[in-house]
Amino acid sequence: MKSKTLRGYRLALLTCCMAAFPAAVFAAPARHDGVTLTIACENDQFARVLADMAPEFTKATGAKVDVDIMSYPELATKTIADFVGHTKGYDIVTMDIVWSGQFEQAGYTVDLTDWIKRDTAELDLDDIYPSLMHALGGYDGKQVAYPFAGYANVLAYRKDLYEKAGLKPADTMEEHIANIAKLTDKANKIYGFVANGQKGPAAAQDWMQYNMQLGGSILGNDGKPTLNSDANVASLATYKELFDKYAPPGAADYDWGGREESFRQGLVANMQTWSVGAADYDNPKISKVVGEVGIKLPPTAKGVPPQYGIGGWGLAINADISDAEKAAAWDFIKWIDSRPAHKEMNMRGAGSYIRKSELTDPDLLKRYPFLPVVAEAFEKGNGDFRPRIPQYPEIQDALGTAVNAALVGNGDPKSVLDAAQAKVVKLFK
Fold first, then answer.
1. Which of 69, 227, 359, 375 is the most buried (most CB within 10 A)?
2. Is the dihedral of CA 283, 287, 288, 294 positive or negative?
């Protein structure tokens, strides 16, 4: 058996106790006795659900499953080290949408294209949103990962605060910013706006959402970076103004967790976010805004067509592992993404949708009435506003530094984006 030294949060799932869900969830084409699968898993809502459900795969196939749950930066660092070092520590990796180009170019993961063609009938592909099949693992004609957890960029807002102020959620960014200003009441610790400001991926990724909605773009029509375009500079200036005037103190150091917590604790009236977090706003164990949150598609600036961001995660198979492990890993992916298993995952609060049937399912709709908003985003959304190209990691690093620098006053929007552009343009020569 191969040796795997794993740090961080680790679950030996074979011994995990849970109530089994129906056996019909999985019809195994083969046994995988003697195989152990280790999954490198992002610490999103789906992580613990995946861990709880995986023992059913063991019962059906004999394959043991371990899940190593870790933060976003740790996941990126440890999986790339595993790929580059060919250490075979992970069999399956939850792959962020923006890593597609990097993974494909480097050959880190199995190209699933032929396997998908072979198993088309079993995969029930007509039920999976084409936008997610493309965005959560498709790149340059190859399928470097299989869609697993689709997210829509949405606006979460406090219905009670809007009603009290006699306002309605806006459809244009200009009106939205006016609402943010009117809803900010610092004397009572109510802030109209919150977003990620922390240096690194958090600041870069949140700003890119606003940048798209304000009419900016990371790449030009020629596919080359345009980080310091006039539109992007204006967008970052607006982002900074929102932080300076309307965000909670310390928001320039928030990542996804801090941003979400400020909203759940009732400090914030408006937050653009990924739909995966919406399931927790009505959870009284962690939320003080139960019953008071509305979810809608985000606004865009006047003259900018509606822009709905798509994000999320695919499941990728390490190209270095043995054929037996690859076969077991592919069976695991087919199982967890099947209609019954994926619905069960979301009934348990994973907030990770890929199937049309899930977003129209009566059981899920009863629990999560905002799902039609997610469905519309998946039908119309853009998974490439954060460029899914091999150079993306360097672009994100440059923007993560630039955006935070602007927010904390270590440079004006133009100068920090000029510096970021100078760094990344060299990658395209």
1. 227
2. negative
Task: Say what the pTM is.
Answer: 0.90
- Gap between the Cα atoms of 132 and 148, Å rounded: 9
213 token code pair: 């909605």
My answer on whether 368 and 389 are in the same domain is: no
Quote the percentage of the chain above a pLDDT of 90: 92
Residue 177 sits in the same domain as residue 293:
yes
Structure tokens given for 343: 């619905």
Q: How do residues 104-127 score in pLDDT, each as one tens digit?
A: 999 999 999 999 999 998 999 999
Q: What is the DSSP letter of 384?
A: -
Task: Give me the pLDDT at residue 278, please.
Answer: 92
* d(C-alpha 311, C-alpha 98), whole Å: 8
pLDDT tens figures, 78-109 = 999 999 999 999 999 999 999 999 999 999 99
CA separation for the pair 249, 247 (Å, rounded): 6
Domain holding 407, by residue range, is 152-308+385-428
| Helices and strands, number each (H, E), in the chain | 18, 10
Together in a domain, 236 and 343: no
* 285 and 390 co-located in one domain: yes
Residue 2 in domain: no
| Amino acid in position 248 | P
Same domain, yes or no: 331 and 234? no
Say if CB 216 and CB 231 are below 8 A apart: yes
407, part of any domain: yes
DSSP string, 105-167: HHT-B---HHHHHHTHHHHTGGGB-HHHHHHTTEETTEESSEEEEEEEEEEEEEHHHHHHHT-
